[in-house]
Amino acid sequence: DLGREVPVTYRMQYDNMCKVLDALHIQSSKKTHLNRGGGARRAEDNGASEAQIRRAGRWSVEKMQGCYLTGLPRESMRAMAGFSIHPGGFFLPRGTTTPSKSLQQQIFPGVDDILLQVETGKLERDLAAQGFLRLLQYLRVVLIQDAVVLRQSQPHMRFLAHPVFSSAEFGAFANEMKPALETPEKPISVAIVEALPELTNFLDTVQTNQIAQSQLAEHTNDRVEQLAALTQQAYVSLSGQIQAVAQKQVRVIVTVQHQSLPSSPPPTSGALVSSPPSSHAPISWTSSSSTPPASAFTSSSNSTANPASPAIPSALLRL
């Protein structure tokens, strides 16, 4: 009886494999690596791709497979087990009947309590421990369902002598499963997969495309709603700015500068000559309004300046 702390050496593995091969009358030069080559060839014969076989044997492992994928080559696993490489094409009659919860808890007792303690933090929250305990919960159902069939085909198996498989509850479950084993009826979905695999693949592709289009439409609707909300916010903000500008008071400052008119010679006799109108005085204004005030325009005088009169000084008027 080996303890948990004793490692399994290569020699121990080799000796046990030799015993297994001798018991099965198998002659092979390979012992410990026998399943490596045989499994790869079996997977290839059953339709598994080379990439799936490499992934199953971990030959030429890439970063994506080692870091991000689960490491389970499902296509190769199905092929090595003798099933179709396409999912959904296998029906297990005994899988249609599920044992009661009380019967399941008789297999691997205490698993539920330990898993609860791990999940609640009473024990160390180890992901590997959680996965292993959930696997034991799944194997409960598998063992009970298989035991019903094995009792008929292999009644001498040692684990069938366990009291669980002799209890009244297990007997009731076996009677419940009996009709499913005697008259198995395949679901329509499985029958279609077996009869028309290409049609099944086409329907699966159509369904996948419909799901993708539905997800894309939902994403597009979300983006449209976001853009509509942003547009509404921008409109409200711009309207507020326009109203604020419209309510502001405009201050206009106008500067008008008049210059003195130059003196002209006296008119000649016998003719009436009017002095030419002088050009407008320079006018400037500063305003935020679009129209200058009317008072900003001042025309010069049309009369002739009096040379005897003093010059008009420049004035700076502010309105």
From TrEMBL:
One of its GO terms (molecular function) is DNA binding. InterPro entries: Ndc10_dom2_sf, NDC10_II. Signal peptide: none annotated. It holds the Pfam family NDC10_II. Residues 11-170 form the Ndc10 domain. This is Ndc10 domain-containing protein. Residues 31-50, 259-319 are annotated as: Disordered. Residues 277-319 have a biased composition (Low complexity). The lineage of its organism: Eukaryota, Fungi, Dikarya, Basidiomycota, Ustilaginomycotina. It comes from the Eukaryota. Coiled coil: none annotated.
